[in-house]
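Appendix B. Raw example, untouched.
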Amino acid sequence: MALKTALVCGAGGFIGSHMVCRLINEGYWVRGVDLKYPDFSPSKANDFVIADLRNRESWEAVLDDNVDEVYQFAADMGGAGYVFTGTNDAHIMHNSAMINLHMADFAVKQKVKKVFYSSSACIYPSYNQEDAANPKCGESTAYPAAPDSEYGWEKLFSERLYFAFTRNYGLDVHIARFHNIFGPEGTWQGGKEKAPAALCRKVAEQANGGEIEIWGDGEQTRSFLYIDECIEAVRRLMASPFKGPVNIGSEEMVTINNMARMIMKIAGKDLSIKHIPGPLGVRGRNSDNKVIREKLGWGPSQRLYDGLAKTYPWIVSQIAALRNEDPKSNS
């Protein structure tokens, strides 16, 4: 029997590189494409193409009629320090929209059997996320639309784009809205890192008794899903007749202050927190997993603490490698 073939867009990034590994382990032949290779380990893709997916010519080179499935993770994105400052809005909207416009067009032309698109919880209206203790992020609450960032607006546009191609051309698209995915081999410095990695880095860099900085009062809430559970959910969605959109995230809501304290406990350090001005996004956000449990009969089960306990030592090792030190000296 012929191998199933998959194209993973954004295969040099965090989630994309993990998806390549999962598909290879399942026996797929995988082509990865990105502007860069993965930052922290060699790609396991059978074929890896360095290409700019904003350009139509790139799609002509990487997507042919032999591809059964496409996993579309490619986007211009980052953490709060990148998305919420306002200075990157034009890049975020233009770059990601161009990728998805070409993707939808070529998937139809090449008769791709199945497409996964990674949307985001950032599509949810900011007016439903003002109460840190009680955010409303059920899939049905997306409209009337009022995302808190241009990143969220572009994701919502692309959801509609793909479903329009489903209605008009029969494209088989499955869409998930990710809620803060984290784990080893994710960006951990440079301005595009997200809160778990940023806090792990800050804790690792401080000696016991030191101080870390957190934007705002630290009482803003979020939920964070470990990478392995994200990949499992995507594979289950792609094997299901359900198209989505569906939340893929944890329901274990936590304040940023409390997540910092979890990491300090893992590190065995007693640090103080200094609250400073910075970009924050919505006041509260949490995944609502009613639909994923109903449609897929599954929901994530790993505690945030356990995922952080795997992520923190990896970030310690990255810091040590940069400093040419023994990782144990930072743990």
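End of appendix B.
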